[in-house]
Amino acid sequence: MFGLVAEHQPLIHARGLVKRFGEFTAVDGIDLDVEPGEAFGFLGPNGAGKSSTMRMISCVSMPSAGELRILGMDPVREGPAIRARLGVCPQLDNLDPDLTVRENLTTYARYFGLSRAQARERAEEMLDFAQLRDKASSKVEPLSGGMKRRLTIARAMVNEPDLVLLDEPTTGLDPQARHLLWERLFRLKQRGVTLVLTTHYMDEAEQLCDRLVVMDGGRIVAEGSPRSLIESYASPEVVELRFGSEPLEGFVERLSGVGDRVDVLPDRILLYAKDGDDAVSEVHRRGLAPSSVLVRRASLEDVFLHLTGRTLVD
Questions:
Q1: Taking phi first (over 0 means left), then psi (-120 to 50 degrees means alpha), and beta for anything else, what does residue 37 get?
Q2: Are 269 and 254 in contact (CB under 8 A)?
Q3: Alpha carbon distances (Å) from 206 to 8, 41, 97
Q4: How far is residue 190's CA from residue 6's CA, in Å, rounded to a whole number?
Q5: Alpha-carbon distance 31 to 46, whole Å?
Q6: pLDDT, tens digit, for every residue of 252-311?
Q7: What is the DSSP code (8-state) at residue 46?
Q8: Mean pLDDT of 87-101
Q9: SS3 breakdown of the chain: % helix, strand, coil, rounded to 5?
Q10: What is the C-alpha to C-alpha distance for residues 28 and 217, in angstroms, rounded to an integer?
Q11: Which of 28, 113, 150, 279 is deepest in the core (most CB within 10 A)?
Q12: Closest Cα partner for 28 from 20, 18, 37?
């Protein structure tokens, strides 16, 4: 059974939270609450303040200003007590290469005061959870990237934490490994585990997060469920137009008034419209002949581009 917290008390509560590094302000006065059982995401470009916020939540970096409570406790005075109830999956795997898969789990469990018998029992449960039982006696080095990530998440779960922090959990994985990891994280959600993750991947945020914030320049620029953000910041449909090698800026004026908004990306133009097919018909009526046309539903990627004004990875 996962640890208990006071009823109706957010697991994470921040008001005016600030993190400075010398003259640079990485996190600039953010407010947020994360409720028990929620999957909460931080979305944003590199340098937005996501990882700095996560490091404060994980009690390895102290706030420069503002209020922060984790599990109802003050990280400045009660850091060790908070860390004992956290599960942390860092952006880069830090598994012990000299130990087997099973030993990585049992050794980590012992750090939290579990007896040898309890550590072995939890390790066996986590091997099944991560689908790594057939690799239990293997050293870490031969494992694939996806297996290492699953092992890192399983290790983060070995102490039955109240809160699991995942920093870019699927970065560098191929699509098959990402989807398997998503399925494992969804199972944690179903068990009532509270997840907090940072990600660059829009589809990952849509798949996993009940609620998320978009950060840019150290500030929160939007907050809500994936669907509510899409409804608030994007039209129902998006038309992607490509015009071969021709400079795209020359088409913007000719597309004025088609749909609700026109965005120019390096390789294509996006038209945001209530009805994508009607927008395509209007494009052709204006004598334009794009080399390719795609009509799709709006996504978090469109929200991200609108709010941050840049491509997905800087």
A1: left
A2: no
A3: 26, 10, 34
A4: 21
A5: 20
A6: 999 999 989 898 888 999 999 999 999 999 999 999 999 999 999 999 988 988 888 754
A7: T
A8: 91
A9: 35, 25, 35
A10: 8
A11: 150
A12: 18
**Alpha helix (H) residue ranges in the chain:** 50-57, 75-83, 101-111, 116-129, 145-156, 175-190, 202-208, 226-233, 249-252, 276-285, 300-308
Residue type for position 292: S
Going from the C-alpha of 281 to that of each of 89, 103, 252, 278, 289, the distances in angstroms are 48, 62, 16, 5, 11
**What domains, with CATH codes, occur in the chain?**
12-226 (3.40.50.300), 235-298 (3.30.70.980)
All residues at 6 or more sequence positions from 39 whose CB lies less than 8 Å from its CB, including other chains = 185, 189, 194, 195, 197, 208, 209, 210, 211
Strand order in the sheet with 269-273: 261-264, 269-273, 237-242, 292-297
What is residue 7's predicted lDDT score, i.e. its pLDDT? 55
- Per-residue pLDDT at 37 exceeds 90: yes
- With tokens 């470009």, the residue in question is 45
SS3 128: helix
50 or 93: which leads in pLDDT: 50
- CA dist 51 and 202 (Å) reads 17
